[in-house]
Structure formats: structure tokens, C-alpha cells
Specification:
Layout: E1 5-11, H1 14-23, E2 29-36, E3 42-49, E4 57-62, E5 67-72, H2 83-105, E6 109-115, E7 121-126
Antiparallel strand pairs: 1-5, 2-3, 3-4, 4-5, 6-7
């Protein structure tokens, strides 16, 4: 019996997800990766964050929803923060990465980026029209 849990997300852009994971100090392995869980069980994912305790964190693309799902053994989650907080931080960094990419594509530049004590991030972007 598998102990793996799948958590749905709204994370759709692979590069923004990879960059957000790196920002949080979790550089993922990419490609067809094996995510380890309870008693050596594995499941295949598109991105994996190997953990020293042998219980990895993975993300796999769900073509039906068009988004990446978190896959891990939640019963053995040993991160310093709960999975809900991990996903909240990841979603915030993902949103920041998505906004930065789309504003750069539109010709904007970040003129100010401020992280507040409440965890929010404030961006000021500018664009000079010719």
C-alpha cells in the first residue's frame, strides 16, 4: 500500500516553479525522477527535491489540470515547517517569479522590491516609453 499523497496546486509554469524552489533553498532535480517514501517505495515525478532522511518531495505534471502537483509521503514529512506553510511560501515565490517574468516581457524593469515583516513582498516596476 502506497503512502504517497498528492496535493493539487495551481503551479503551471515549470520554470517559475523551478526558480521558486531554488529561491527557497530547494534546488530540484529535473527530468523523470524517483521520489522516495515509506520503506523505500518510489513514485515518478518531473521534479524532485532529495532529502537526507530518504523521504523526498516531488512535483509531477498533471495534464488534466495543466498544473504541477506536490507528491510526497505526508506521514513522514520532516521539514522545519508544515506542508501548508511550505506550499504557501512556494506559491508566493512562484507568483513573484511569474510577475517578474511577465513584466520583463512587457518591457518593465523592477525599480524597487521590498520584503515586509508580515511576509509580503512589494514590487515597483517602471517602463520608459520611447
Amino acid at each position: 500500500m502506497s503512502h504517497f499523497s498528492t496535493v493539487k496546486t495551481e503551479l503551471r509554469d515549470r520554470q517559475a516553479l523551478v526558480d521558486a524552489l531554488r529561491d527557497l533553498g530547494h534546488p530540484p532535480a529535473e527530468g523523470s525522477c524517483q521520489v522516495r517514501g515509506y520503506r523505500g517505495q518510489t513514485v515518478t515525478a518531473d521534479l524532485a527535491i532529495p532529502q537526507a532522511d530518504g523521504v523526498d518531495i516531488g512535483f509531477r505534471f498533471n495534464p488534466d489540470s495543466g498544473s504541477y502537483e506536490l507528491v510526497t509521503d505526508l506521514e513522514l514529512w520532516k521539514q522545519p515547517i508544515p506542508v501548508e506553510r511550505f506550499l504557501a511560501q512556494l506559491t508566493q515565490r512562484y507568483a513573484l517569479r511569474t510577475i517578474l517574468a511577465s513584466t520583463a516581457e512587457e518591457g518593465f524593469q523592477v525599480s524597487e522590491q521590498t520584503s515586509h515583516q508580515d511576509g509580503s513582498i512589494e514590487l515597483v516596476v517602471t517602463r520608459w516609453d520611447a
